[in-house]
Amino acid sequence: MKNTELPPVFKAWVPEWAIRAVLFWALLPPFLLLGLYAGSGAEMAGYYGVEPADVQFSILLFYAGLVAFLPFDPHLGSYLRLRNSLLLSVVLLAALVGLAGGVRDFRLLLGLRFLQGTVACTIVTPLLSLIFSRLHSTRARAMGYAVFYGGLLASAPLGTMLSWTVLDHYAVPAVFHAYLLVALPGALLLLLILNDVRTRRRLPLTQLEWPSWVLLSALLLGLSYLASYGQQQYWLESPAMWRALGLAVVGSVAFGWRQVHLKRPYIDFGVFRHRNFCVGLALFCVFYFFRGTTNIALAYFTGVLHVDAGQMVGLQAATLVGIVLGVSIVVRFVLLGTPLRWLLAVGFALLLVHHVWMYLLFGPAQQLAVFWLPLLLQGLAVGFVLVPLALFTMGGLPPQLTAAGTFAAVAFRNLGFVGSLAVTSVLQPYWRTAQLDRFRADLLPGTSEVAARVQSLQQTLQGKGLALETAQRGAASLLARTLETQTLLRYCLNYFGLVSLGLIALLVVLLVLPPLHRQAVTFRSRPL
Predict the structure, then answer these.
(1) pLDDT digits (tens, 9 = 90+) for 420-457
(2) Rg of the chain's alpha carbons, rounded to an integer?
(3) Cβ neighbours for 7, distance < 8 A, ≥ 6 positions apart
(4) What pTM value is reported for the model?
(5) Nearest 5 degrees, angle CA 279-CA 283-CA 289?
(6) How many angstroms separate the CA atoms of 122 and 126, rounded?
(7) Interacting residues of 161 by C-beta distance below 8 A, sequence separation 6+
(8) d(CA 202, CA 177)
């Protein structure tokens, strides 16, 4: 039943189920744009003639644009009626995506990605408010967080499925064009069913805090650059890294100083006086560090098993089904009043089982079918973790700090994601070097099994009619490829093993940490 206390935002002839379906359809594409080509980095790098680190930086730029503009949008968006504001945002985002599909200069794409993130924020913020308004008051926060974080989680597998399917038949620009075909119908339906109403009080121009947005953007851009290029440029041995670090430090100090002294701060630092909120933010960062194994598994599937587009879509579909199941099930438990500590413990335990299972399955010639259940379990686990974690983090905040808390949670999610990328960029070459050192001693001619393997490969190639010199080069090439595969495989095993140990430690902390032990946010005691 519709809430009669709210203004008539939607046309009277639209049923409630259709409103909710259209809202979700319109909300998902901005999230999808974040991870649109995250699983196709090699193809993107080849098309634009850049390094994989450049592609990673473009993804972080979108994220930085979205996060930096999140507190700003409610102020700026108050100057337009809801439908006009969304229409302007949809047109701008469609234009930016269309331009991204037409440029060949990667530097232009980087600027477009930051602007895409900024404009996507102007769609996400009002749509989330509308979703919360369509739900019963005692269920609004749980269901709203389920939709919001479920959409964020689903964006990665959906983006990978879309990009792999398109790139199997077309060039890179078609990925952006396919995105428009997916995104525009939902946006147009939403505009069709909206009434021309104002849902937010217009704020004075003096309250538009542009300097804080600039400072926060500088901070996030500096961190994104460090995470993307740090290892490639040997960290602080490069002047560019010093400039990025300086930008991040100056941006953070100036931003913090300004928020403390502003009468109406961009983000109210009062949220950090709440212990449970700070614990929740720390868990967000840890959780997204553990989520970094998703990219490691993707590297294994592409670099070791050499999956094709159809196989990759099947693997990502298993993850997506798990996310939907996990979010749906955990919301029911939350509504029934299950203590959040136990839901978090179950979610992280499932994530531990996934990592141990994958560790045991990794091999140079494994069947893809055996990975469907572990990937479904991963989706189930992350869905089981994220909604209770968001509720635990936000549950103790007073109403006036809810907006600041939401922004801080999204910002720390970004920091966890950036930190995860930085750690993987450090560990991968370290473990690769260690693996190569172990092989180097065996590469001396005539002294190892490796030499015998080279001789066997050479004889096999000669038996197929190749000349001696050609067979020698071919054997060396095959050995190098085998070594690369083994190095990547060892890297995957090491990383999954490290994360498994981290999850065990986290589970112990969850069971003994006082804030989590005493937290019992339920719908029976008080509304969320």
Answers:
(1) 888 887 777 777 777 666 666 555 555 555 566 666 65
(2) 25
(3) 197, 199
(4) 0.84
(5) 150
(6) 7
(7) 312, 313, 316, 317, 320
(8) 36
